[in-house]
Amino acid sequence: MSRLAPAPLAPLELMRAALHLFYTSFTRALPYALLPMVLLFALLGTGYLLGEAGYLGQAWALYLIGAFLLLCPALMAPLVVQVHASAHGRSASAGEALRRGLRSFLPCLAGAALFMLAVGTGSLMLIVPGTYLFIALSFWWIALVVDGLPVIKALTGSLRLVRGHWWHVAFGFSYVYPVVFCVNAFDVNMVSLSNRMVEAVVATLIAVVLCALVPMFVSANMVVIYHDLTLRRRTKMR
């Protein structure tokens, strides 16, 4: 049974729907958010060690973050498969989520590169075009992974869905910021144990889990808004 609304929602109702989907999909989605976060922390740790040893320049963190942003949609594809399945009241096996994630890995890399290029070009022109494109093109990821659209059709399809509803989507996206703020507000340095090594491991594990909450909520939020936009487009076409 679908957990998504049968009719378009008001902005505040979008928040409740996203929170509900985040809660109901939490257990199944968590492993698929943790694995990319573990990879990110491993990359950052490796970069830090190599930077301290003098093998990398001072901008190593920026390069690693840029690489992760490019890889992020591909690595998180199994996550959105699980969240989308939960939203429609069905279970997706680990094999199905991983197969669909693997199948969309290269298209996601291409889509992420084109998305970053479009948003970056818009931002160089003016802040407003960059912000507009960031929101208007964001649903390429859902369209590609969930609906199986080719990269270009996913990007243009996102533009069509958001057209006329940009502020509605921007308001829906704004719910992500409190989640990010709460995650950042937690100070892992509060963890205090007698053994420094154990303390570092525990603090890192807590940081990984906290950071995994952000893509989980982002995925739930995007699935809810994507469904809402689809309903609005169908209503408009009648």
Automatic annotation (TrEMBL):
Keyword match Transmembrane helix: yes
The protein's name in its UniProt record: Uncharacterized protein
Record keywords, A-Z: Membrane, Transmembrane, Transmembrane helix
Membrane-crossing residue ranges in chain numbering: 29-50, 62-83, 104-126, 132-152, 164-186, 206-229
Origin species: Massilia mucilaginosa
